[in-house]
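Bug #2210: token dump truncated for ABC-2 family transporter protein?
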Amino acid sequence: MKQVLGIVHYNFFGYFQNPKVIFTFLLEFVLSFLLTGRITVVMENYDTPVQAVEPFLWTFGDGTAVLLSSLLLLLLFSDLPKMTPVTPYQLIRTTKKKWLLGQFIYIILVTALYAVLMLLFTSVLCMKDSYPGNLWSETAAMLGYSELGKNLQVPSTVRVMESISPYGCMLQVFLLLFCYSLTLGFVILVGNLYKGKTKGMVFGLLYSVFGFLLEPSVVAAILHKEKYEMYQVNVLICWISPLNQAVYGKHNLGYDPLLPTIWQSCMFFAGILFVLMVLALRRMKKYPFEFLGEKT
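Reproduced locally. Full output below:
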């Protein structure tokens, strides 16, 4: 394990001085600023506060926001697997499996950092009129009990506020966002291992587009479903679409037993990660490393 952690350490060497990393985090902040605009408008017009984590919940409670936030990872993970000046030495002193395990841990840590920053950015942007207490705010009540939330496309619903506290909801939304982003990172890694550098970004983009295209109207047209059968279509999409599995409002929440629970979604993503890890490990047996133009 010491060798694996050493590989992870070298992957982070000069990480925060990397222009690509800095640019990605700046884009993450800009995206958070744009997505929280819907909430700040309500706060300013009605002069009501928000709970500290509510902006994060409303911002990443719909599929479009989850998709947009995860797309920045295409840039952040474009260079997977990480090749450093000491990679040849690491491969001599360790095994390919240990080196790959170091890549796995690196992806997990970067994804966690990315998700944490997303939470911090959305909270800081609304900090001026927020409070830390674990109670839903007046703004949340307005958005949930009126048509205001629906009109602004803010996913604040009554059933969420009646079933869980803000911090409890935040943990679940964070977990779903983290799991979806993590699977995207592993898709990019496997794509690069099998097809070469930059090809992983194509696979990651296809993974994202797959979830985006699984809209109820499209699936209903393919399956020739009538309007009264749309409920069945919605349930089907919630189970088979990775993007919908990452959306908090698409879950059971104690109201609809046919929809997946939060933990079932976590198992769904765990299954995808397991398959991707197996594929990566199999590829490692014949992966051609390139150093200074030479393959080893």
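Output looks complete on our side. The CA atoms of residues 91 and 99 lie 7 Å apart. Marking as cannot-reproduce; reopen if the truncation happens again.
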